[in-house]
Amino acid sequence: MKKRVLSAMPSQTFAEGALDAAQQTGELSYDGYKKVWSDEFNGDSLNRADWNVEIHEKGWVNNELQEYVDSAENIQVKDGKLIINPVKKVTDGDTGSTKEAASYTSGGVSTQNKQTFIYGRFECRAKVPKGKGTLAYPAPFDQPFYIILNLAVGGSWVGNPNDETSFENNPYVIDYVRVYQKDSYDEDVKRPGKISLVMS
C-alpha cells in the first residue's frame, strides 16, 4: 500500500454532458506539484493492483436501491475510459407497480488499501449521468482517504428514479483520475472549511 502524508485541499473537475465537448490538449500542470499517481484507463480491463471492485447488498448506504456487483455489465474499461453502468434488472410490470420494487445493479470501485493519500490535488475528468435518482459522488475528505468512484441508484439522499430516469446509454464515464502532491508542505496552517457538493 502506498501512503503519503501531506497537506493541501483537493480540487475536482467534473463535466455533465459529452467528454468530447471539453477535450483537453495534454495534461494540466500545477506550480509546485508533481503527479504521484494516476489511472488513464488505457487498457482493456480494470487495473486490480490499484482498484477494488465494491460488492454490497442494496440498501448498504443511504437506502440506495442498487446492489454493487463485480460484473462486466456494470464495470468496464473501453476506449481509454472507465464506464460504470447502472442496470435496471426488471420492469415495473415484473415487480407489481412501483419503480422502488425494481431491482438495480451498478458498479463501484475504490483504491482502499491499495492507493491512499492525505491532501494534494485530485483531478477526475468524468461525464456524470443525468437523471433523477442517480448520483456519482467523488467527495473531498480532510483526512487520509482513498478514491471511490461509484454510481448510486435511488435512496434517501438523491431520491428514487422516476419516468425520466434513463438506464439506457446513460453511464458514468471516467476518462482519468490523477493525484498531484508537493514534495513538502507547511504543516502549521489553518485548515479550510468544509466544501459543499451541489449537483443540479
TrEMBL record:
Gene3D superfamilies for this protein: 2.60.120.200
Keywords, sorted A to Z: Hydrolase
Any one GO molecular function term: hydrolase activity, hydrolyzing O-glycosyl compounds
Keyword Hydrolase: yes
InterPro entries linked: Beta-glucanase-like, ConA-like_dom_sf, Glycosyl_Hydrlase_16
Single GO BP term: carbohydrate metabolic process
Highest taxon above the source species: Bacteria
GH16 domain ranges (all copies): 28-200
Family, as annotated: Belongs to the glycosyl hydrolase 16 family.
Protein name as annotated: Glycoside hydrolase family 16 protein
Species of origin: Agathobacter rectalis
